[in-house]
Amino acid sequence: MSTGVAEEFFEIVYAEDSPTDAEVTLRAFRKANLGNRVVWLKDGQQVLDYLFGNSPDVLKRPLPRLLLLDLKMPKVDGLQVLKAVRGTPAGRALPVVILTSSAEESDLVRSYELGVNSYIVKPVDFQKLMEEVARLGYYWIAMNRRPAEG
Predict the structure, then answer these.
(1) Distance of CA 106 to the CA centre of its chain
(2) Which of 12, 69, 118, 134 has CB atoms 3.0–4.6 Å from 97's, for a disulfide?
(3) What is the pTM for the complete model shown?
């Protein structure tokens, strides 16, 4: 399955099935000058196709600098994507942030068991969500350091 995304490098791969939530998040990235480096994928299967292509055990290179996942998505949920990514050597160093409306303790615990780097519950307030997304984008793209891909 093709994502319809041109084969180019994106610093942030963003998985979100809600167009409304995606628009708010993408607007916050644009406001923080990160918007031109984000690809929005609408379900977990698109994320797997984008990251793995036809090779289910090997991530494509270059990897994004951040994978931002919603949990509750159609076809393949965020936890399944996280598990697949962390199941590869290259995927263990890829920063993965869950950005979700789920405040369920079981989702939080399972995310960390699978190796998520951060778990953020989306604020309901539009302005607070904009601020939170801008901060997380700035931190993971501009400030966070990770090992060079080898």
Answers:
(1) 20
(2) 118
(3) 0.87
